[in-house]
Amino acid sequence: MKHLLSTSTLSRDEAILILDTAEDMAATQEREVKKLPALRGVTVVNLFFEDSTRTRISFEAAEKRLSADVINFAAKGSSVSKGESLKDTAQTLHAIGADAVVIRHPSTGAPQMLAERGWIDAPILNAGDGCHEHPTQALLDAFTLRRRLHGVASRGKGLDGAHIVIVGDILHSRVARSNVWLLTTLGARVTLVGPPTLLPAAIDGWPAETSYDLDAALAEGPDAVMMLRIQAERMHDSFFPHTREYARMWGLTDARFRGLPESTSIMHPGPMNRGLEIASAAADSPQSTVLEQVANGVSVRMAALYLLCSGVKEGR
Amino acid sequence: MKHLLSTSTLSRDEAILILDTAEDMAATQEREVKKLPALRGVTVVNLFFEDSTRTRISFEAAEKRLSADVINFAAKGSSVSKGESLKDTAQTLHAIGADAVVIRHPSTGAPQMLAERGWIDAPILNAGDGCHEHPTQALLDAFTLRRRLHGVASRGKGLDGAHIVIVGDILHSRVARSNVWLLTTLGARVTLVGPPTLLPAAIDGWPAETSYDLDAALAEGPDAVMMLRIQAERMHDSFFPHTREYARMWGLTDARFRGLPESTSIMHPGPMNRGLEIASAAADSPQSTVLEQVANGVSVRMAALYLLCSGVKEGR
Amino acid sequence: MKHLLSTSTLSRDEAILILDTAEDMAATQEREVKKLPALRGVTVVNLFFEDSTRTRISFEAAEKRLSADVINFAAKGSSVSKGESLKDTAQTLHAIGADAVVIRHPSTGAPQMLAERGWIDAPILNAGDGCHEHPTQALLDAFTLRRRLHGVASRGKGLDGAHIVIVGDILHSRVARSNVWLLTTLGARVTLVGPPTLLPAAIDGWPAETSYDLDAALAEGPDAVMMLRIQAERMHDSFFPHTREYARMWGLTDARFRGLPESTSIMHPGPMNRGLEIASAAADSPQSTVLEQVANGVSVRMAALYLLCSGVKEGR
After folding, report:
1. Which of A273, B244, C115, C255 could be bridged to C3 by S-S, CB 3.0 to 4.6 A?
2. What confidence score (pLDDT) does residue A82 get?
3. What homologous superfamily does CATH list for A12-134+294-315?
4. C41 in contact with chain B, both atoms CB, cutoff 8 A
5. What is the mean pLDDT of residues B24-40?
6. CA end-to-end span of chain B, whole Å?
C-alpha cells in the first residue's frame, strides 16, 4: 500500500493487516504506553478543505501518539479554481517536505488526484471526499464489529458470514460506500435500506442487497445495524420525507430496537440525531458501539499512518 | 481536586497548594528550565466555544512547557442545540483519549456539566463560562498580589488582612465573581464598586462589601485596586452611562491614581481600555501589575494542569 | 542581527551568513536528519494578522524541524485600534515567554514597531508587512539563484555580476522591494519592468534600473527573470490594463520564454496565475525554480530562526 484512498481497492490481506496493526496500537494505548516513537521526525499535514472537527481531531491524536510533527492546514473558501489550487497546494507541501498528507475535500476524487498526478511524493490518506469514500471510517467500523464478534481472538480474522444492515441516505453517504466494499471484502453480507429516492438503481453494481423495507431487513436478526446520519441541510430537499415520517419509516425506533436480538450491534458514525434516525434507547444501550467506534478510530488511524509512513521513512 | 471549575468550592488549603505549586513552576521558568517532562504523553484539549486568544495562548504555553500533547478545538457557530453538542463533543474527546480538557464556553455552567455528567473521565479546567467564573484568572490575580505583599516569603501564605477594591461592571464579570470567592477564602477583604445598574442587590449573598462611591473606597488606601475591563459591546446598553461619564465616575483617572499610596497595586485582567476604565499613568506605573499578571498566568495554569493531571496519570 | 525586519539593513556578510547557514540546514534535510534539537525549549509564536497559508506553513515546518514549541496566533478582524492592539498583543507574548515572534501584518512597519518599541524582548522576523518588505522571501530567492549559478560551490559567495529582471506590479510588491535591496547588496544588477502605473517614479531612489519594455529587458539575456504574482483583487483597479492586455504586454508568454537563453532561471514567488503573468511552458520548464524556491524557503527560515534564537537562548 502506498496510499489509502478507497476501500474498493484494498485486498483482504491488506485490510486484515491494517486491522491487526490497529489491534497492536490499541494494546499499547490500553497499557498506557500513550506515546510511540514510530513517526518521530515525520511531518504529517492535515489538509482539510472542508470542516470536520471530529475526524481532524482523531487523526491529530493518532499522529501525536506516533510522535509525528503535525501541521494543520484548513483551506476553505479559496477563490482559485479547485484543480489549480490543489496542484499548487500539493507542490507546496511536497516542497516543504511533508511526509504524509491526510486530506478531506468536498470534491469526489480529490485524494486520488493528489496521489496520482505526481505533484507530491508522499502517502495520501483520504479522510473523506465528497459523497465518495471515507476509508478510515469503514476500517474503524470493521475493527469495531470484528472485536464485537470475535473479542480477543480477532487477530487475523475477517467478518466471514456476518450480516450488516446499513440504513439511511445511501445515495450521499461516503460512509456507506466505503463500508460496502470493505465489509464484503472481509466476507460479510451487506443489506442497504433506505427510501427509494436515497437508494438509487445506480448502486446495482455494488456487492450488496437493497431493500425499501426496514422491518423486513431487521427481522433477519443481523449482526449489526449501521444507522447513517441524516444531514440536516438535506432535509429540505425533495429527496426527503418529512422528519417525523422519516423517523417512523427509516429510524431505529424504540420498538424496532426492542425487536432486535441482543447480539445485534448498533453502529452509528456520529454525531447522532437522536429521535430522528436513532432513538436514545438504542444509542445508549450496551449494544451500541458508538463510543467504541470513536475510540477505535484513533487506533485504526495510527495503524494506517504507521503502515504507510514507515515504508516512506526507509524508502526516501 | 478532580476539576477546576469554580473558586467558590476551593478550600484555603487547595488554593494555597495551587499558588505554591505555581511558585515552583515560576522558579523553573526563571532558571531557564523551560521544558518540564511532567505531562509527557498526556493529551490536553483546548475546547474553545468562544474566542479568547489571550487565555488560549496562555494555556497552550503552559501545556507545552509541561511537554503535553496539545489539540486545539475551536467550536464556533455550531448549529446543533448546545446541550447535545457538548455531550457529543465530550464523548468524542473521551473516546479519542483526552486526558484533560480546558473549556471556554459562553454559557454559564457548561464546564460543570462536562465534569458532572460522566460523558468524559478527565479533569476539566474552566477557562471562563459566560458571566459566571474564570478561576485561573482569579488564581493568577491572587498569586500576583501574594507576591507583591510577601515577595520571596510568599509560600504557604494567604492574603490575610489584605483589602482589595474591585471596580467596574461587577454584574457581568466572571473575573470579579471568581476573585470575590478566592480572595475571601484566602483571608482578604473585598469591596465591590460600580454604577448601581452594574452592582445589583442580588450579590448580597457574596462575602464582599459594596459601594457606589469609588473615591470613598480608594480613600481607605487598599492593598490593591482591580479595574475591570469595560466591554465595548455593552457600552450601548441602558446599563451604561456615557463613556466620558463612566471614566469620570468609575475610572482610575490620573487624579485618583495620584491619591493612592505607593503600596497599592494596580491590577487589570487586560486588555485595557486606556482612558476609559484606567488612565495610562496608572497602567504604566511601577504599581501596575498588568504584565506580571499575564506572566503569572502561565505559572498558575501549569500548576493547575500539573496538580489535576498527575493524579490522572497514576489513577488510570 | 537581533531581528530580521528588512533586507535594506542587512550587510553583505550578514546576508551570506544566512545563506551559508541555510546550506547547512538544507544539507541536514537532504541527509534525512529531519529533526534538529537546536531550538528545543524555545517557544516561537507565529503572529499572523493576515492570511498566508504558504508562508505560515513554511515557517511552521522550519520551527518544528528545529524542535521549537510552536504557537499559532491568527489575529484577524480585531476591532481595537491597530497600534494599541499590537502593543497589547506584544506585551502578552512577552509575558507568556515567547522567545521569537514571526509576524505577518497588513500594515507597513508593524514588525519594526514590534522590534523597536520595547514591548517584547525577543527576535522579530518579518513574514511580510503591507506593501513593504518580505525579507525571508528575498533570502530564499537569493539562495535559489546562488545555487543555480554556483551549484555545490555556493558557500561564501554572493551574486556578483548576475543580472535579474523583476516583472509586474512593482508598486505593491513587498517581494520586489525586499529583493531589490538584497540582490544589489549581494552584487547583482536588477532591472524592474512593469506598466507605468505600477512602476512609479517614486522608486528612483532604489538601486535598480527601470523599464517599461519587457522585450528589451529580456533581450539582454538575464540570469533570472522573476515574475511577480498579479493579485486578482487589483485587476479591477484603474492601475490595470485588461487581463489579456496584461498577459500580452507584461506576461512571460510562450514566445518570450522560447526567446530566453537556457541558462536563464524562471522565478516566481507563487502561487502562479498560469496564462496571466506566466505561461505554463515557462512555469513547468527545467529553467523554472518555482518548487526549489518553496523547498529552499524552509532551509532559509530554519537558518534565520537558528541565527536569531541561538543568541537569545544564551543571552537570557
Report:
1. C115
2. 44
3. Aspartate/ornithine carbamoyltransferase (3.40.50.1370)
4. yes
5. 87
6. 16
Q: How far is the alpha carbon of A57 from chain C, nearest alpha carbon, in Å?
A: 17
Please tell me whether C104 is known to bind a ligand: yes
Cis peptide before B37 (omega within 30 of 0): no
Q: What ranges make up the beta strands (E) of chain B?
A: 43-48, 69-74, 100-105, 124-129, 163-167, 189-193, 209-211, 224-227, 265-267
Closest by alpha carbon to A125, among A68, A200, A210? A68
CA-closest candidate to residue A53, choices C141, B90, C169 = B90
For residues A253-273, give the mean pLDDT: 96
CA distances from A157 to A17, A137, A154, A187, A265 (A): 10, 19, 6, 10, 18
CA distance A272 to chain B (A): 8
Q: Are C89 and C81 in contact (CB under 8 A)?
A: no
Equal CATH topology for B12-134+297-315 and B136-293: yes
Question: Which fold, C135-293?
Answer: Rossmann fold (3.40.50)
Adjacent-strand bridge partners of C252: C278
Q: Assess contact for B3 and B120: CB atoms under 8 A.
A: no
Taking an 8 Å cut-off on Cβ atoms, the answer to whether B57 and C40 are in contact is no
Enumerate the domain spans of chain B.
12-134+297-315, 136-293
Sheet strands side by side (includes B43-48): B69-74, B43-48, B100-105, B124-129
Q: Cis peptide before C200, with omega less than 30 degrees from 0?
A: no
Residue A192 bridge partners (DSSP): A166, A210
The predicted-structure confidence for B130-154, as pLDDT tens digits, reads as follows 989 999 999 999 999 999 999 989 9
Domain covering A135-290: architecture:
3-Layer(aba) Sandwich (3.40)
Q: Does C183 have pLDDT greater than 50? A: yes
pLDDT band at residue C81 using 50, 70 and 90 as cut-offs: very low
Q: β-pairing, A163-167 with A189-193?
A: parallel
Nearest to A69 among C64, C271, C272 (CB): C64
Rg (CA), chain B: 19
Whether chain B has a CB inside 8 Å of the CB on C76: the answer is: no
C41 labeled part of a ligand binding site:
no
Q: Please report the pLDDT score of residue A313 as a whole number.
A: 46
Picking from A39, A44, A45, A96 by the largest number of C CB atoms within 10 A of its own CB, the best residue to mutate is: A96
Task: Indicate which of C53, C71, C276 best probes the interface with A, i.e. most A CBs within 10 Å of its own CB.
Answer: C53
Chain C positions touching B293 (Cβ under 8 A) are 95
Report the residue from B32, B232, B294 with minimal CB separation from C92: B294
* Res. C75 pLDDT band, cuts 50 70 90: confident
